[in-house]
What does this fold into?
Amino acid sequence: MKTWLEQLFGDANGVPDDARISAFLMVLTYCGTTAYNVAIEHHAFDMQSFGIGAGALAAGVGVWFGQRKGN
It folds into this structure.
């Protein structure tokens, strides 16, 4: 399990990659706060707002990784 996580968050040389870790935490936080607002705060789940936010997050992460190229 540890090797799998090191490969998931590491670059080609095995060095932990701060961009991959940050992107993972951003997505996890986005999904977690949405679940919290629906389950605990009893807000209605708005699929359109969730989709727009998730799309913007995915686009931002894609641009972030695209600018780094081979890293």
The chain is about 75% helix and 0% strand. The mean pLDDT is 88. Residues 19 and 65 are 8 Å apart (CA to CA).
